[in-house]
Structure formats: C-alpha cells, structure tokens
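Batch manifest, entry 17 of 40.
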Amino acid sequence: MAIHPGQVPRSTGTETPSLEALREIYGEAYRIRRTRCLWIATRRDDHPALPSTIIEEDFEEFVRRLNHRPPRAGRPLPAASLGLDGAEP
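Output type: structure tokens
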C-alpha cells in the first residue's frame, strides 16, 4: 500500500504518531525505527530484489523510498556461507 507523506499524522515535538502509522502500514515488510536524526527501515525478510535497509534524514524522502523502493544494491549472502543452515561453507 503506497501512501503520501501528508497522509501520515505528524505532531509537534514527537514523531510517535508518524512512527506508529508507518509501522502499521509497512510493519509486515520492515522494522521501522527513529533516531534523533534518522528514519530507518530494515527488511524483515531477505527479499532478493528489495533493499535490506532504508535510511533517511528527511521524513518525506523516507516515505517516498518506502513507496518506491529502489533495487537492492547487492545480493544476499547464501545462508550456507554464514553457517546458518548447518552446512559447511
């Protein structure tokens, strides 16, 4: 579901309403958090074509990138090379 940044509630002095709205909309695909300066979304799965992390300072750009995800910069490492499946690398 794509949204426009103006559709996400904003409040003065806190990002809580925006953060809660983004988590509700994108929470199945991304873990979304906020630092003092950055909006951060991290993929919950290892989708091969989507970026694993989106980081932006600007709220509107962050929402734009969630709606129009750029292609992934690299490919995920096979689980075997990380020793996650019990197989030898």
